C-alpha cells in the first residue's frame, strides 16, 4: 500500500503546481516536499513528474497516482461526514432476542423502518447462549437476555419481566383447571415448551406433574409464530411467555389462564461495555424498552 503521508503531499503538490506553495500549505519545508516525492516515486518504481523550469508536468504514472489521491480524499470526507452526521435513520443495527420477544418487538420497529429507507434492521431470534456469544464477538449491537450475564465486557439493564403463561382455547370453561384437565386437552409442544412445563406446571401441580417427557403430547410446532395456532382452533394447550401471546395475530382465539402460582422471566437489555452507541442503536434501545414495558 502507498504511504498515505507521501500520497497526501503529492496530491497537494499536484493541486498547487508549486513546491513552495505545497510546503506552506502543509507546514513543511520545500526540501521535505521533495523528499516525500522521491520516496513515493521509489515506492511506485516510476517517475511521477517531469520538471519544466520552476514548474512540472505529470507523467502517466503521476496522473494515476494523483487520481488515487483525490479519490482517497473523497472517501475520507464521506467517512467523516457519515461519522459526524450520526444519522438515526441510516445504517445497520443488529438485535438478538428470543423468538417470542422478537415477534413482540418487530411491530415496534416497523414504523421506524417504513420512514427510514436507508436503515437496515437485523432482528435475529436465537438461543440465549448465541445472543451472549454474538454480543461478545460484536455481531450484535443489542441483545435481550433472561438474566444478567455478569460479564466484565458487557453491561446490562433490567427491563422488567414477562409472565410465563398457560394458554388455552378462548372457549375454555371458567372453572379451575386441574392437571387432569390439561392432560385430557393435550400439550402443544415447542422447543422451549418442555422447560416451561417443568417450570410452571411442576410449580402448580407438584403432586400430579410427572415430568415433561410424560405429558400427553397433542402436537409439536417449531415455528414461534404458529405455536398458539392449534390452541386458537380449540386443539390442546401450550405454555408461552407473555410476548409470544401478545404477538399472535389471532389473540381472540386464546385465553391466558391464571394459575394460583405465577412465574415470570426477567428481561435484560445487554450491550458491550464502554461502547459509544450510534444514534440508530440508541433509538433501537428505546424501542426495546418500550416493547418490554408493554409486557408488565
Automatic annotation (TrEMBL):
InterPro entries reported in the protein's UniProt record: ArsR-like_HTH, LysR_HTH_N, LysR_subst-bd, WH-like_DNA-bd_sf, WH_DNA-bd_sf
Transcription regulation recorded as keyword: yes
Keywords linked to the UniProt accession: DNA-binding, Transcription, Transcription regulation
Keyword DNA-binding attached: yes
Superkingdom: Bacteria
Family according to the record: Belongs to the LysR transcriptional regulatory family.
Record-given protein name: LysR family transcriptional regulator
Organism: Paracoccus onchidii
